[in-house]
């Protein structure tokens, strides 16, 4: 049982509060053994400058405070250690103080006025830069590079080897029959052996495919392990945690950015069942974090920085799907914790800038904003809601199953020897993927291409296998009317069915490996395949049985009533919804892909069903499940605290424990204070009365005492420490006392012992607290930290409370 | 100076805490003298049922509490008076308790399980009903009726008098030249005198136009005054206040709904410069409030009800503009206070249902979802951002000016005799409007028609005056190329310029009259006219001077480079943005009108400029200005509290005042308690220690004592009242003591006296408090109420603190 008081996570041993930020210790986080000295490339921002205590507002004396030059300039006071939670209230208060100071100064001189104007517009400028950088350099670059590398697995362009397949054939001057069979593009077999047909050439291409896949994935995993362990995974669980106020130094640093960008391209090109959309959010957040250094306002304030990161998450989705509004709603719904209206507006701006930058780069070559441009010709009918809801159920079931299986697999990786060989794991999975994927054209193509093909509405002249309908000339009705399936289509359906099973299985073991990997595309692919299969099934049913009662009245012979592409789209939304539990943002992203309001209703029906079904098996989405797996201190804002416990049941000390460790406002010595163990202490009037005066962090205490020792004469271990307004009376021969009122938080949050925990949790969430004191009839009784709450919640849910690792 | 303690507004005299809810007193609110007995048609919901104290959670003893049958069933405890602010924390806690109870019961029996399922889905069902009702019965009905009545001012359909002009001519079998000059539709002059041309006929039509306008407005204002005074205005300021937690009984009642629906049609038809979009939000909220009665969960809980109302606001905008996503963002950005993610998702659902219901009714006759469907052919060029920003500046200036002028006029109405003759005012303004509007075809048509015409992109065959270009056959370039303006267009421009001045002036005095009136359409009309004028100007400039350097490279001769309709749209967005200060939602609504992502950038540039320019003159939008004008207790969530005062500067009692009125936890008698004056009291251990135990409302105290007198023997004025766990020792002959711990809030919020006010304001906003106690070193010092904060803010802004009327 933990002792009462406020401990900062399980890392007390490793990260002693007075440790330097750049210590070289190894910490196991997210299953990876990380070397802090190499990842901590971003200077610990909060210690980068002096935090004037006079302007933090939390010292509470306001403008009338007597300035104490010693206290005011202690560097490091008010900053945070790594793997700790920030205090939102303190950060926001600091920012308001800074703003107030600038506003006051701006009335005095023109220079100051200009400075204040710059300050006011720096947020917008930052957003512009984030949008431009994420949209162009990264998203565009990643798209182009991934396209080229993916095609390299199949062959090479003879005229210019840096052209991808499509581009190569566009540039071709020669005539050729099929669009993608130009003479300039040669498969590896053709290049090496000169033969493009036959079993030998096939095997040759097969081998080269596997070779490139292994090479890419080996490069990716090696780079990640060597330079930036934080670059692995999708990054969204960690970003959610960071946005909720946690500090992981280096997670959004420049090395992470560089390595993640490169390895993302490699991982996607290696043909693994992963997408680049989720990691793009991480990449955009890295950009934003690095750009924050340019502006003092954002560099020095953890809360303000998180506002920018929220906007960056929107930018990430905006460039991933070309859906700026969907991106903003994704940030609001899925990743952000504190999302004021100002941030909404700025995110929207940044998302738009990014989307337009991307469009001007035109990586998809279709001058469209969106990844999958879809245009459907036929409306849908109310009867079709039934299959759409079916797809929703499938999506929900698959989402729930996927989360369980993936978490079980990741837990296995953490707890068994499997986790010790990440490179081998990646290579084995890549080899398996390549081996199984090559023979099937639907798994050989990249996830995005597959989805694009499945969403496609067959036109009359479409040569793709999926549009292999028999031509019938009934003479009546629409030229796009439903037609009977032909040989080609049946083959395609078999292949799709195999692809579905393959994708479902391989994605479970792929997500969570030590390479950058997103879930959006694989989830959507699974759903799109299922949807397309159902769609074609419905279409054939309607064609052969248009006299059935369910088709009566809307689907006569020769009419174009079923659009299999729409089913694929609905299926994709359902599966993505089941896995991530996104709702509004998902529907809006899909709406932005099609541009037609009328397809919102099917999407909504499927997403809603999928969420309900998946929620029935477990309320957590994949990101929340990974957060919990890694023991991050994340207080889910969506879930209600349902239990009827009171603050007194959760607080420390428990009834059997020794009393709470407190400091008294006078009468303690420097030595006594230095020999304490907890991270923070309430300060009381006296041990007897237990009347609360304030709260002080051990880190700030030690920094201040250290500083005082250096700068003030006569501070020894027996010097008295006092937190009261006036120095206590002392014997004349005593050493001079040390006044530490300046570092004390004079407005600690308190709740009474009778406060129901649901209210307490609400307060923690809404105000972003990291601790709260508990009183009874005006006397201090105990303390509740965010970790205590999370442990309590884990206990209620019959989980191991010790799985919560950080504070 | 007010006395220390917690007073409930300035209405103490009128609304004594123990008064019945249905008192007949007259209260002046929003400038209207209202008769409560007639408007309070909706039963005061919160007193409708018994609120079991055992399930409120705020009594704090949790599940282990000994059940005290007397305390548990006191009706009315925990409810609110009219014109008071709710306590969000208490309401949400109540709902969680209710939910917990249902969940616990659901494990016991199948019936209870079904009940719990019903309860879980009741929110969705309610949303469906709100969407259906608002979309169909109201929005559709209002559209159709307003269309018909508006046309009635000009003439009548001979075949079927209930057809409007357009419908009448559609139904016509005869041939006629101009689309809207069918023989079936006869102007009044034609009908009465048989002549359709000439001065006499013109005057005849003019007179009839004025007659109908006066008749409609007279009817509207009379109905509003007689049956539902709350039906006047746009309703958005009041809804914002209600959503922030204020209670105005009857504001969303069934009479308000009926009367507002009818009078809205009349007011719009009378030709006054007002729109129906804002009031539709009020109408949708009334629907939602009435439908809430069907579900206990929403009927009995003020916080839950507000979630539904937030969604209803989204529905209102969704049906007004056919923009469901924009509607949801409008609710989030502009009107809502507490908008959890669950509400976001449900609002979206309701908004979609409403939009599709409206579409199936098809009131605009174009089977489009949107009010103004726009399709532009030409893209815009970067150079055009300059005129777009100019439009933004115009919009911002006009917005700021409009708000000032309108508020000055409304203040005048409140303070002078003008306010005593609302009927005459409405009639005079209607007469003026009709007199001036008839001669100009652009003011004669309704606002929505005008905007629609201005947004329109001229095709070659367009016969409208605005498309009166000279036909040139250059032989080169686009058939839609820029052409020189002809006679007709010059006439149109003159008329538009006059219409602009007229609309700008008349809207100032129209908004705020005692008829339902929205601002969206008039504001957009002003901006659209200005935009179209600028657009045509730019077009002619480009035509005649395409060799100028600004047109070089993108606007050669014979090209279609300038789209005046787009300018009109940007201007409309800018002006609406300047008046309401909407940002994201405005851009998204406009985006949903056009459906093209590429026009977002001009819209965004104009909206941003407009907001910045308008904010430079005053940070309040029109709705906030009206809220302040009416003295509602609204704590603006968007604005930061900038001043550096501390809690001790704001709290009551002030330094010179007598000490805070408190109750002690024992030792007081029933008589002493009953003779108190304030609305609420902190309960302390003893007068000496001032250690806080809890907080109790006078209303709850009086209700409980009343109840105890009726049900418990021997309660007299000298009976002791105690709030402690155990009864105090008493002399044996004393009357039995009364235990009131159950009605005491055992977890009152406290802050220390040193807490900066910015943090305190944040706490109030985020938690939705109505009061907060102030302590110093564990002793109770004072109290801060929402009203105190608002007064303090008014004082800082150099406004009259007494303008804040309510608590």
TrEMBL record, chains A, B:
InterPro entries from the UniProt entry: CBS_dom, CBS_dom_sf, Cl-channel_core, ClC
Domain of life of the native organism: Eukaryota
Main location: membrane
Name of the molecule in the record: Chloride channel protein
Keyword vocabulary terms for this entry: CBS domain, Chloride, Endosome, Ion transport, Membrane, Transmembrane, Transmembrane helix, Transport
One annotated Gene Ontology cellular component of this protein: endosome membrane
The UniProt record lists the keyword Transmembrane helix: yes
Family matches, as PROSITE patterns: CBS
Membrane topology label: Multi-pass membrane protein
Similarity section: Belongs to the chloride channel (TC 2.A.49) family.
Domain CBS: 744-801
Record bears the keyword Transcription: no
Gene Ontology molecular-function annotations: voltage-gated chloride channel activity
PANTHER family: CHLORIDE CHANNEL PROTEIN, H(+)_CL(-) EXCHANGE TRANSPORTER 5
Localization (cell): Endosome membrane; Membrane
Chain positions covered by the region annotation Disordered: 1-25
Residue spans crossing the bilayer: 124-149, 209-231, 252-274, 280-296, 308-332, 382-407, 419-438, 492-513, 519-538
